[in-house]
Specification:
Layout (H helix, E strand, L loop, with lengths): L24 E2 L2 H8 L11 H17 L11 H20 L2 H6 L1 E8 L5 E3 L1 H14 E16 L2 E14 L6 E13 L7 E10 L5 H4 L2
Parallel strand pairs: 1-6, 2-7
Antiparallel strand pairs: 2-3, 4-5, 5-6, 6-7
């Protein structure tokens, strides 16, 4: 994730924590979604149909450029460049650096967190992150890349992610887990050479016994 996550948001209940983290609890990720977006004040209302239509139109328009378009060969250099960019996003969240989080997103970014929870624009992303960091320590504890496709100067990546949040007031930490698809675009104005352009998230697959021993 932009899941660098990237922070993203989904709906779903996670009733069991990993055996190695019994002190933690998995929470419905829509709760993390509201936190990621800062609060109701930074959420931009949209209907679910609008979210789906906008995203599908974007994908259809992108691939209509060439009906036979395929993923470009995955060079090691390109992959390392994107890995560095996504790591920088996660690091910015871990450090509570809202300004850097904003710089790593396009001015025209749209982030779909489920339902009516949509963030539009770099300023909204930065504000949501800053409000979140005031109250919470944030850490990405899982970032499993499922698929990456490079097409020209665009990368489309799907990841399974987990975000550990610890209230700064001394409350118990919790983990939210989801799956995100992020569209990155190469841009010279980015500190890493990549900017998040679009992000959409959904519920992650259930945790399996094999996941619990990782």
């Amino acid at each position: 994730m932009d899941s660098g996550l990237s922070p993203t948001a989904v709906r779903g209940n996670f009733s069991e924590a990993l055996p190695t983290t019994r002190c933690l609890r998995y929470v419905p990720f829509h709760a993390a979604a509201n936190a990621i977006s800062g609060s109701d004040k930074t959420m931009i209302s949209s209907t679910e149909n609008h979210m789906k239509t906008t995203f599908l139109m974007f994908i259809a328009m992108f691939f209509s450029i060439n009906a036979h378009a395929q993923c470009d060969p995955d060079s090691a250099t390109l992959r390392q460049s994107l890995d560095k960019a996504t790591a920088a996003i996660r690091d910015a969240f871990s450090r509570g650096d809202a300004a850097m989080v904003g710089r790593l997103h396009s001015p025209n970014v749209i982030k779909y967190f489920g339902g009516n929870n949509v963030l539009v624009g770099r300023d909204a992303v930065e504000k949501g992150a800053r409000d979140w960091f005031k109250q919470t320590k944030v850490e990405f504890v899982e970032n499993t890349v499922e698929n990456t496709c490079f097409v020209g100067n665009i990368a489309i990546q799907t990841v399974i992610f987990s975000i550990k949040t610890t209230p700064k007031n001394g409350g118990a930490p919790s983990i939210g887990r989801g799956r995100s698809m992020v569209i990155y675009v190469q841009d010279k104005s980015s500190p890493t050479g990549w900017l998040t352009l679009r992000e959409i998230a959904q519920e992650a697959p259930p945790i399996t016994p094999s996941d619990s021993v990782r």
